[in-house]
Design brief:
Mean pLDDT: 87
Bound molecules: ligand PAZ
Strand order of the largest sheet: 5-4-1-6-9-10-11-12
Protein name: Phosphopantothenate--cysteine ligase cab2
Low-confidence stretches: 1-19, 27-33, 136-144
Family: Belongs to the PPC synthetase family.
Distance between the termini: 51 Å
Region (Disordered): 1-30
Structural class: alpha/beta
Shape: globular
Number of helices: 14
Organism: Dimargaris verticillata
CATH topology: Rossmann fold
Number of domains: 1
Helix content: 40-55%
Number of strands: 12
CATH class: Alpha Beta
Domain DNA/pantothenate metabolism flavoprotein C-terminal: 73-174, 188-321
Length: 334
């Protein structure tokens, strides 16, 4: 990957907390070499072929929940996008995300009474299925488990039509589907939550710049030049879902960057919550950044050592968000 592709997206308005952190400062001072706006992105790229089918499913699910007067609905995005390197794709760039956070969180939102649209990377982890994904047992095994609550919970989700599964593969699929979901959720206003846990690529190669056929190795090494994926949080917050409750995640590997960059994202886009997590500790600890507050949620040592049904950090995250979302909904009515 050449240097251009390594340039981070830069913040234009660095907050004080970043100014006091030289590491974060230098990252945030890098300027994007090319940044197309989201509208241009949608005109330059074709919508995925499955979009009309996805929209039909969304229409049916949302109409059902409007009729049922379901109090809350959440879009959970989960798993990593791929970035194709050829139009007839043989190779692509992927990332580490297995979709654990999204799948676990979807279960906790269902338990909290939310209808859930689970927008996930094809073949990544899914709610409930994730419990047997590793040992290749069947959903039947899960349903036949001793835990009666788990079973009745799953059956309720099926009979009450509370979970809609939709998929993406590439970053383009992700952006087109996300924009469509916002259209369908508009009637829910503040009662809709967006929980954006997917790991979405920051860089891509536009179709027009991609080679049609498989990249050949005859000429030696490979240098890639990638464009920056537009920052879709801005239109999401300001145009597509301005009344809804929006939670984004920020992943870093350098601890010194995490909080400054999470704060920066919140200031830049003006949504409700950024949840910061580090690659190595993400299953154990996260930091909430809101306009008023900053606090950490963690699993205790005792909780981590439990061998039978160890608690998951997602239970704590969702608990906290449900509480904050309630305050938001009430405040929006005032
Ligand atoms: O999918 P997973 O459970 O392995 O990882 C979850 C996560 C780290 C992708 C998520 O918590 C997250 O931080 N998503 C946003 C990543 C980003 O900064 O784009």
């Amino acid at each position: 990957m050449d240097r251009k592709a390594e340039v981070f997206n830069a913040g234009r308005d660095s907050p004080d907390s970043i100014a006091s952190n030289p590491g974060a400062q230098s990252v945030l001072e890098s300027r994007p070499y090319e940044q197309i706006d989201p509208d241009t992105y949608f005109t330059m790229n074709s919508a995925p072929t499955q979009l009309p089918a996805v929209e039909a499913q969304l229409a049916e699910f949302v109409t059902y929940h409007q009729r049922q007067e379901t109090p809350r609905i959440v879009l959970v995005t989960s798993g990593g996008t791929i970035v194709p390197l050829e139009n007839q794709t043989v190779r692509f760039i992927d990332n580490f995300s297995a979709g654990t956070r999204g799948a676990a969180s979807a279960e906790y939102f269902l338990q909290a009474g939310y209808a859930v649209i689970f927008m996930h990377r094809e073949r990544s982890l899914q709610p409930f299925n994730r419990h047997f994904a590793q040992d290749k047992a069947g959903l039947l095994d899960y349903l036949c488990a001793d835990d009666a609550d788990q079973v009745s919970g799953t059956v309720q989700i099926q009979t009450k039509n509370l979970l809609l599964l939709i998929t993406f593969m590439t970053v383009a699929d992700y952006l087109f589907v996300l924009r469509s979901v916002t259209n369908y959720l508009t009637p829910f206003g503040s009662r809709a939550m967006y929980y954006l846990a997917a790991a979405v690529s920051d860089f891509f190669i536009p179709a027009q710049k991609m080679t049609e056929h498989k990249i050949q190795s005859a000429h030696g090494g490979l240098t890639l030049t990638m464009d920056q994926v537009p920052k879709f949080l801005r239109p999401l917050v300001h145009e597509w879902a301005p009344q809804s409750y929006i939670v984004s995640f920020k992943l870093e590997t350098d601890e010194r960057l995490l909080i400054p960059k999470a704060k920066h994202a919140l200031m830049r886009y003006g949504h409700q919550v950024v949840i910061g997590n580090l690659l190595l500790t993400r299953k154990r600890t996260v930091t909430f950044i809101t306009r008023q507050d900053q606090f950490t949620l963690s699993l205790t040592n005792d909780e981590c050592q439990q061998t039978m049904s160890p608690p998951e950090i997602e239970a704590k995250i969702v608990d906290e968000l449900v509480r904050q979302h309630t305050v938001f909904v009430v405040g929006s009515r005032a």
